[in-house]
Amino acid sequence: MERLPTELIGNIISRLGPARDVVIASTTRKQWRDAFCCHLPTLSLNSKDRPSSYGISQFETEISTTLSQIERLQGLSISMDEIDEFSAPGVISRLMHSRETLRSLFYNVRTTSNVNILVIYERSKLETLFLAHNSITGVNPNYQGFSWLKSLSLKYVSISALDLSLLLTACPKIEILDLANLEIAMSDTQDKVELRSPTLKSISVEGISLDEFILEADSLERLHLKYCQLKLIKLVGKGTLKQLVIDDVTSNDVTSMDEIGEFSAFDVISWLMHSRETLRSLFYNVRTTSNVNILVIYERSKLETLFLAHNSITGVNPNYQGFSLLKSLSLKYVSISALDLSLLLTACPKIEILDLVNLERAMSDTQDKVELRSPTLKSICVEQISLDEFILEADSLERLHLKDCDLMLIKLVGKGTLKQLVIDGVTSIHFDIGVTLENLEVVDIYDFTIIWPQFYKMISRSSKLRRLRLWDVLFDDKNEIVDLETFAVCFPQLSHLSLWYVYLRDGVHYALAGSSHLENVIEMELGWTTINELFPYWVVGLVKRCPNLRKLVIHGEDMDSEETEECMRLTSLIKHFMDDKYEHVEVQLAYQ
């Protein structure tokens, strides 16, 4: 470390995080002290780091002393969420000290009286400003006071519509604007915001209610609206938009009880058509007075990512590949028929990721069956869906995730490319994912009933398996016993093993027969529903078979007082065994 340049040392100690750690590090030697005073690029001050013995005034003094010693600070973060009020004069003096060199400021401080950050930093070289719990008034309309600012975030800030517009004008190089939970000052005579910026590339608006929101931005590439109530949204630009995210946006423009919480479909279509030619990513979660057919609007477009929620899809064109560039498709709370879903996947010749969550089967369906085919699909997640049959033909599939589903028949037809299999809370009678699973690396099964001979036949050739989790798994044959020898022989690369303890009349589901070791297992998780005196010996037996184990986590369930006492006694016995013979293994006891 002595040979490192002072500038590099300053960069290193600035990454320690809390200011107190940085100060302590700077006292270790003179070179580090010089780096702290002259070459510290960033510093973070947080109320969570205040010693419990410190009062607010003492904490303020420590902060002032720390900042006064640093000469060329470029990035400053002050977050005082846990302190109600700081002294305003003290805060101003600290900010003025770093005014000339600062490039980035994160400011979240409540003060006895409002601190006007804009007055302190106007005509400075600030490039990034995050401002929270503050009030902005009287923005100067005559000049560009923040000529270097590229990113501006306002959260829980009180500001008038006029001042917000003037502030954006004062930032001629602004590229990123985030507005969250703004309080539009009472001086406004109308509930309307108009913003203009030729350089703005990204805007996020969250938790805001307005009659009108109008944005004129010729370079805008990303528009994100979330948890807003906006009667009118208007974007004026030059067709540069690439990402449009509309998440839980509602309207207060209620003309009848049927329209509560719904936008005019005509308005939504006009927004979407405006960005059709340039958009690459669309996150769309909007309830409208009548359904907006997103597929019709964006067919033959350059869309690569589409998330669609609370919508209805009908009449997918079966004759051509209308989404030739789409790689990722997510449907959530969407009404669609099995035929349209199949046709939609066919219309996406480059699709790699497909997420289906809580789909509503269209009334036109005559049978409870879905068949999907895709030669390019690599990952599929199916959640909260009930069907008689779910059949997937995917030659390139690497990840299959089924969660909270009721599927009588699950069938995967492929070419043995599957690497990850995750089954979580699924009910199924027939489960067939093929016999060529040599590439499986992760098997994670939770709350699922399996026929062990059939399941073992499917995964027994998976010699590349690294993670195996059989958690709260039921066997079709309640007396089924699986030897640990099976895992050792079939899965030589296994590094993470998670098993659920179930006591049987003749032993446990996962028996310790055989002598082979699980040489590569470094982490093991064990859990139970019911526990008895054999559990500690089972645990220690497993540990003996894993000579390179580094970490053991034992999970417990909620129990009554007697069960809790017995549980604590048995797990304490395990910890005693481990501390006595396996000191190198970290043991954690996790109770729910």
TrEMBL record:
<feature type="domain" description="F-box/LRR-repeat protein 15/At3g58940/PEG3-like LRR">
    <location>
        <begin position="124"/>
        <end position="226"/>
    </location>
</feature>
<dbReference type="InterPro" id="IPR032675">
    <property type="entry name" value="LRR_dom_sf"/>
</dbReference>
<dbReference type="InterPro" id="IPR055411">
    <property type="entry name" value="LRR_FXL15/At3g58940/PEG3-like"/>
</dbReference>
<protein>
    <recommendedName>
        <fullName>F-box/LRR-repeat protein 15/At3g58940/PEG3-like LRR domain-containing protein</fullName>
    </recommendedName>
</protein>
<dbReference type="Pfam" id="PF24758">
    <property type="entry name" value="LRR_At5g56370"/>
</dbReference>
<feature type="domain" description="F-box/LRR-repeat protein 15/At3g58940/PEG3-like LRR">
    <location>
        <begin position="301"/>
        <end position="404"/>
    </location>
</feature>
<dbReference type="InterPro" id="IPR036047">
    <property type="entry name" value="F-box-like_dom_sf"/>
</dbReference>
